[in-house]
Amino acid sequence: MSPIHDQSYRRYAGTKRPLGQSWQVIAGAGIRSLLSRKLFLAVLLCAWIPFIARAVHLYFVTMYPAAGQILPVDAKYFMLFIDQQGFFIFMVTVFAGSGLIAADRRANALQVYLSKPLMRTEYIAGKLAILMTFLTFVSVVPGILLLVLQVTFAANLDFLRTYPYVIPAVLLSSMAWVIVSSFAMLALSSLSKSTRYVAILYAGTVFFTESVFGVLSAITNSTRLAWISVGANIEIVTDVMFRQPPRYETPVTVAILVLVGLIVLAVSVLERRVRGVEVVA
After folding, report:
1. Which of 47, 170, 214, 240 has the most CB atoms around it within 10 Å of its CB?
2. Dmax of the chain from CA atoms?
3. Domain spans, the chain
């Protein structure tokens, strides 16, 4: 019979991570978990197809300037690319975000997380970092790389001198999609234990607001109610950033207020739903 070793209390011999850095552990574990899914990797790869197509177009325009008459390379060119990535931002948000909190609620892991020396803000920040990392990868990164390719192929900075506002426009418009999508999905994920239900709820919210705006626009023969659609609000802000004619009649101030309101609402939902269980001795 093997001896029974003493299992009495022993001091923790490892290193203790300082307070405020635990979100990095949550983010790292979540990113690795998603990268292990083949279907999700396929979605990420598909999100780069528009970038490859536009990179080839930039090359041909540089080599054969006459090709630029079909689709000129200007500020609108990059704005259309950001708009195009909106579909893939939606897909990645659904795949990567629907289970971020819902899965923890289903497994009753939320109480385990918050019973440790882990602040609620760290937990939320870690979950946000997971989704924002992948959304940045399919929006901000290809947008900036496309600008780098344009300058590289042209071998000069003439484009940036002509359109100096394109770099901040690409960054800010992409981040608008990333931030709004991340907060909205995380808030919805905190409302249910079902990942599938959260995905349907998010998709329904996006398509429902777009459909309501479409119907009202047809009835009123006006686009002043574009603020009803989440996507339209971001497009309104994007038009201003790229200094393009507005696609809708809704003032940009209204669109910004709606987007800020959505983020505030999402934060309020997270504050109410992400809570530990108090144990009374």
Report:
1. 170
2. 86
3. 22-273
Please give the model's pTM, rounded to 2 decimal places.
0.88
Please give the C-alpha separations between residue 171 and each of 67, 82, 85, 235, 265, in angstroms, as whole numbers. 27, 10, 13, 14, 24
CA gap 159, 163 in Å, rounded: 6
In the block, tokens 């307070």 appear at 19
Return the closest-CA partner of residue 262 out of 231, 224, 238: 231
Pair of tokens at residue 24: 């990095």
Per-residue pLDDT 10s for the chain (281 aa) are 555 555 555 665 656 666 667 889 889 999 999 999 999 999 999 999 999 999 999 998 888 877 777 778 899 999 999 999 999 999 999 999 999 999 888 888 877 777 767 788 899 999 999 999 999 999 999 999 999 999 999 888 999 999 999 999 999 999 999 999 999 999 999 999 999 999 999 999 999 999 999 999 999 999 999 999 999 999 999 999 999 999 999 999 999 999 999 999 999 999 998 876 544 33
Q: Give the integer Cα–Cα distance in Å for 219 and 139.
A: 34
Amino acid at 264: V
Phi, psi of 152 (to 5 degrees): -65, -45
